[in-house]
Design brief:
Length: about 375
Amino acid sequence: MNKAKQLFAGLILMALGLRTSQADYTLNLMKGVTKVSNDIYDLHMLILWICVVIGIVVFGAMFYSIYHHRKSKGHVAKQFHENTTVEIIWTIIPTLILIAMAIPATKTMMELSDVEKSDMTIQVTGRQWYWDYKYLNTDIHFESHLDEASERVHRTASADPRSVPHYLLNVDKPLVIPVKKKVRFVLTSVDVIHSWWVPDLGWKKDANPGFINEAWTSVDKPGIYRGQCTELCGRDHAFMPIVVIAMEQADYDAWVKKTLEEQKQKPDLSDQSREQLMVHGESVYLKNCVGCHQINGAGVPGLIPALTGSKIATGKWESLDGFLRAGTAKMPSFAKLNAKEYAELMTYVRNNLGNKVGDELQPKQTALPDDDD
């Protein structure tokens, strides 16, 4: 009941112009932080008020006629048809209104599709259930997953979502772009249809397997802008958020330099303590395995095998290592992991989730002869 009252009050205040479009319970679009998003908002408001005026005129005339020409006042309905003048008028006026609406709408649609003269291009690939970003003008390439705090809370029934800032809207690695630059996006998918949407940018675009869609943005103001996948893409659809950080050019250049240096670094193959292996292993598990095997390793009965008590998980570590690298028809290969992550993940799986093998695998044990990544 309180929510309904707040919603009703918000509607009244919004109609009176006393609330912003981004306030709680608003029923309007948000303006966003790009020229395109503001053009879309202005177009929306133009069409809205045209529709409001039409509604007032049409319903006003209808209610006036019903009230002042009612039978109780002695009026008798007249039988008539085919008034050429009236038909011409009600054809010309709507046509002019549609033309007035079509001109700015077409201009905005053409603006949305204009990806030419871009300063940089980023490939966005949707995966179940995270985003993959590749900067085509540099060698930067990384995955962006739901942050660990949100991952733990949403998979733990007794946890309080309010304890996590930006719950389900935060990631481990955000997308970073420079301000006042035209950024072109090419979007695709490797499995099912996803949809990349950041409200502040003013648009959303589907990521379809086997196809390439294009979009662009240019952010004038530095800041953090959050979004989500808006296409129902499977069980964990609600857990693949988007975070875009817009930086000044100097800050962006520094980020590019730092990121490239980090990507070139070889994994640290030095020995770790058991505590370190378990802590880091949990992070690797939450990022790569929890979506199917669940946070407690129970899996999904009849569909996803449990890790708890699994012969593969608790048998020889070499067998588990080979299994992870090869993958199966249901489980993708984890060849993207480096030796350090393999050691951490296997130590965690074999000594948590109800398993107690008792061993500690070190990165040097899981490193391949040519393991440079």
